[in-house]
Design goal:
The structure is a single chain. By secondary structure, this protein is mostly helical. 42% of the residues lie in helices and 9% in strands. Helix 2 runs parallel beside helix 3. The protein is globular, with a radius of gyration of 15 Å. It starts with 10 loop residues before the first helix and ends with a strand.
Length: 132
C-alpha cells in the first residue's frame, strides 16, 4: 500500500494530512506528487474526476517546494470560477498551516479590488486566481 510518506512529501505535510484523516493517496496523487517534487520545474495538467484529490495532487508538492524565505509570488494557480478559486485556496491554506512562511492569497473578479491588492502586499508565495 502506498502512503503519503512514500511519495516524498515533507514530514509536516504528511502530519497535517494524517490529522485531516487522509491516509492513502488517490491514483492521481500517487502519479502527480513524485513528478511535481522533482527538482526540474514543469507545467502539469492532471485530469481526473471531481473529488479525486487533484488539488492535493498539485498543491502538496507546491507547498513543499516553495522557498519560504522568498516572500515574492512563486506560483500562480488559475481556476475557471470564483468558487473554485476560493475552494482551492481554502484547501491549500489548510495544508500549508503547518509550514511557517507560506501564504496563499486569492484574486478574482466581482469583488472589491482594494482588499485583494492589500492582501497581495503581504508576503505571498501562492496566488490562486481566476480571470474576470
Amino acid at each position: 500500500m502506498n502512503t503519503f510518506n512514500n511519495l516524498g512529501l515533507s514530514k509536516p505535510l504528511t502530519n497535517v494530512l494524517e490529522s485531516l484523516g487522509f491516509n492513502k493517496p488517490t491514483p492521481v496523487q500517487e502519479k502527480a506528487i513524485p513528478i511535481l517534487l522533482n527538482d526540474t520545474p514543469i507545467d502539469f495538467i492532471g485530469l481526473a474526476q471531481t473529488g479525486t484529490g487533484k488539488t492535493a495532487a498539485f498543491g502538496l508538492p507546491l507547498i513543499d517546494i516553495i522557498e519560504r524565505d522568498n516572500t515574492s509570488v512563486q506560483a500562480l494557480v488559475l481556476a475557471p470560477t470564483r468558487e473554485l478559486v476560493q475552494q482551492t485556496a481554502k484547501q491549500l491554506a489548510q495544508f500549508a498551516r503547518v509550514v511557517k512562511g507560506v501564504n496563499v492569497e486569492v484574486v478574482f473578479g466581482g469583488a472589491a479590488i482594494t482588499p485583494q491588492i492589500n492582501s497581495l502586499k503581504k508576503p505571498t508565495q501562492i496566488v490562486i486566481a481566476t480571470p474576470g
